[in-house]
Amino acid sequence: IRQRHCKRLPTAGFTLIEILTAIFILSIVVSLVLGSFDGIFSTADQINASTDYYEMGSSALIRIVSDLTALHVMRYPRYEPPDIDDAPEMYRFVGEERLVGGKSFSWIRFTSLAHLPLNQVSREGIAQMVYYVQEDEASGYILKRSDNLYPYPEFEESDDDPVVCEQLQEFKLIFFDEAGRELESWDSEDDDTEYGTPRAVGIRLSVGETDAPFLFRTQVMLPVYRYQPVKR
Fold it and tell me: What mean pLDDT is predicted for residues 6-32?
C-alpha cells in the first residue's frame, strides 16, 4: 500500500514580537488622540473663563461710569466750607488708597442719582455710593458696591452689598482737578483740594488670572463739579 505524503501548509499568524509591537503602536496612537481631546477641552474651558472675565470686567466698568456720570454735588453758593466742629457734608466726595490683604486698592465714596432699587422697592433719590475691595477665599479679591438712600448710614462693609467684580487684580482711581493735575486721593472737605470736587476720574480695572488679566481703562468727565474760582 502506497502512502500518500501530503505537504503541510504553513500556518498563518503573528509572532509574539509582532503582537507586542502592534500593541505598543496602538497605545501611542490612543495616547495622542486622547491628548488632543484633552487639549481641545482645556482650550474650550480657558476660552469660556476668559469670556466670563471680559464680560464681568466690562460690566463693572460700565456700572462705575454710570454711577459717576450721575454724580450729585452741592455747589457754590449753597455750599459753605466746614468749620472745625462741623460734621462732614453728606454729599462729600472722598477717594483714597487702602490696603486690603497687603495689596493697595482704591476706595471711593460719593453721592449719585443712579440708585438701583432692591427688593422691588422703587423709591428714588440721591444715593450714597461706596466702591470697596474685599479679600475672598474663592477668587482672591472682589469689588463691592454699597448703595444707600438718605438718611445715609455710617459706612460699614456688609455681606449684603452686591459683588460688582470677582477675580480682581487691580482697582486704581486717579482724580483730576480743574487744572488737569493728577491726584491719587481726594477729599472734598479738605483744604488741600480747596473744598472742591474732581473735574474727572480715571479708572483702571484689571480682572482675571494673575498671569494674564484683562485690563480696562477709561476716564470719566464728571457732569458736575465744585471749585472755588480764584479771585483776581
Answer: 69
Q: Which three cell numbers stand for residue 53?
A: 472675565
Q: Are 109 and 92 spatial neighbours (Cβ–Cβ below 8 Å)?
A: yes
Burial tier of 167 (Cβ tally within 10 Å: 0-12, 13-18, 19+): buried
Q: What is the DSSP string of 173-215?
A: EEEE-TT--EES-EETTSGGGTT---SEEEEEEEES-TTS-EE
- DSSP for 61-77, please give it: HHHHHHHHTTB----TT
The answer, yes or no, to whether residue 121 has pLDDT greater than 70, is no
- Of residues 192 and 7, the one with the higher pLDDT is 192
The secondary structure of residue 125, as a DSSP letter, is: S
Which residues is 97 bridged to in the sheet?
106
